[in-house]
Structure formats: C-alpha cells, structure tokens
Amino acid sequence: MLLILQSLAFYLISVIAAIFIGLYFYFTRNFNFWQKLGIPYVKPTPFVGNLKDCVLLKTTIGEQLQRIYNEHSDKPYVGIFSFD
Questions:
Q1: Integer Cα distance of 50 and 77 in angstroms
Q2: What's the CA gap between 79 and 76, in Å, rounded?
Q3: Which tens digit of pLDDT belongs to each residue from 8-58?
Q4: If we measure between CA atoms, which residue out of 32, 59, 53, 55 comes closest to residue 43?
Q5: Could you give the C-alpha distances from 27 to 20, 41, 76, 81, in angstroms and in order?
Q6: How far apart are CA 53 and CA 5, in angstroms?
Q7: What are phi and psi of 37, to 5 degrees?
Q8: Cβ distance 59 to 65 under 8 Å?
Q9: Which of 62, 36, 37 has the alpha carbon at shortest distance from 51?
Q10: pTM (2 decimals)?
C-alpha cells in the first residue's frame, strides 16, 4: 500500500511540475520579440510581462507606463510586454 501511495505522489508531483514548466514556456515564448526586431525593450517578468506592479495593485497602468517612459526617455521608442 505504501508503495502505491509513493508512486501516486511521485506521479502527481511530476504532472504538476510538467504543467508548471509548460505554462512557463508558454508565457515566455514571445519574450525575445523586441530583441529580434532590434528594438530596445524592458526585460519582462514571466507570467505578467512588464505589468507586475499593476497586477499586484502597487501602481496604476498610467504610473507604470510613465515610469517606463522616464527610464527610457533617451530612446525614440521602447518595447514592453503585457503578460505574454
């Protein structure tokens, strides 16, 4: 019985890990988009892109975009990521 529970636990952990790894790769698949085009960009965070503070309700979208603009005001344009 213990062997069955251990193998079931291993299987469950493996499935959860595979789902998490799959989601990570799905949400980060486009994170080299701006780099391929040669456009400067803000390095994104997996799952939320450049909107982490907005998602966590620490700031508004307007304040976040203003901060990005101010940090990159020397460039004519900058790429950002909204989630993926």
A1: 15
A2: 11
A3: 889 999 999 999 999 999 988 989 999 999 999 999 998 888 999 999 999
A4: 32
A5: 11, 17, 27, 11
A6: 41
A7: -85, -5
A8: no
A9: 62
A10: 0.68
| Ranges of H-type helices in 28-60 | 33-37, 52-55
Neighbours of 49 (CB within 10 A): 20
Tokens, residue 64: 């976040």
The DSSP letter of residue 59 is S
Give me Rg for the CA atoms of the chain.
19
- Residue 7 has φ and ψ, to the nearest 5°, of -70, -35
The structure tokens listed for 19 are 């789902």
Residue 52 corresponds to which amino acid? K
Q: What torsion, rounded to 10 degrees, do the Cα atoms 66, 67, 68, 71 define?
A: 120
Q: Which two tokens stand for residue 47?
A: 């799952």
